[in-house]
């Protein structure tokens, strides 16, 4: 309606079957329709004027009965009077012929149909008397059809036809369940295969790390212990030769004792480095502080310690611990050889993100960036810190001493 109160207008259609000479109206040179004072309606047509008297119109209030005439499923005819069970694979082309038995203007009968299980709403078929469906999935279906007569009186009860389209075995729930179980089992199997590969890679990596560590230990023992033991052997031979000369023999024996102490210290370093019990930051700091005191004492250098009262035992890898130790050892060696410092401060500071190991002396110092003895040692220290993701800082000036800072991020040394 124009005021929006209704979306459809109910109408009655008239044609030749109702007595009109022509169903084509013509309002080109005059109004399309008019209403006289007595209430009659007049319409111009191509064969004259048609008059309708609303007071004398009789409505057809008999709803048309419906009949399903024929059902074809992939050219297979079905009995519309009984429910049907179709074999798997049917449903490619589904064709339903229906009609309504109306003797008054049968051409004006209108139909609506719906296939429950396929259509969501009624399909407006107009006066078409056949419905088509293709590629139906397995399941239960009910086809329903209703119709109205020429005056719009609907037979809402209509008629229906029910059928079952059976599924293939691979379209059933047991098959889906078995398929899902198979997918889970295959996925679980692949997961275990992947875990096996990961474990194998981890074993190979551990083996490679072990071989690398063994090679490093062998190299250090060859360099440190081998040369020292060779020196001890030579000095022992010289001492045996010079036994008649007590002064020279005593000098050789003194060198043997010094070299023996160095061998014991090198052995202690190697044993400490390979012992996994010491793979913690607290163990490293304890060892470095004692090592610094023992190393500097023979050189007449006092070592003052400034350590945290409670140092958390953050885990370290052997590589991290070894590189930090070698860096500190190189720094102490440079101080003993070049700094001429009476005092060295060994400090350890810890915050939430970093561990800072500081070594400071009050020796002669040197211009930073200048070429000096031990320059290669500084480069080695930088490289060792870079390998474990640390940072190396140097501050020195002539006559003002030297300060080294070894900064390691806790997130890189903390494994848990």
Explain this structure.
With 416 residues, the protein is of the alpha+beta class. The protein folds into four domains: 16-56, no CATH class; 66-169, Immunoglobulin-like; 172-274; 278-416, 2-Layer Sandwich (Heat Shock Protein 90), CATH 3.30.565. Helix content is 37%, strand content 26%. The chain contains six helices and 17 strands. The chain has helices at 173-241, 246-274, 281-296, 318-339, 375-387, 410-413, and strands at 34-35, 41-45, 48-52, 66-73, 76-78, 84-86, 93-100, 110-116, 123-126, 130-134, 139-148, 154-165, 302-306, 343-350, 354-361, 391-396, 402-409. The strands form four sheets. It has a five-stranded mixed sheet with strand order 6-12-11-8-9, with no helix packed on it. A five-stranded mixed sheet has the order 13-14-15-17-16. Helix 1 packs antiparallel against helix 2 and helix 4 packs antiparallel against helix 5 (375-387). The radius of gyration is 52 Å and the shape is elongated. Residues 412-416 have low confidence and may be disordered.
Notable characteristics:
416 residues, alpha+beta, 4 domains, 5-stranded mixed β-sheet, 6 helices, disordered C terminus
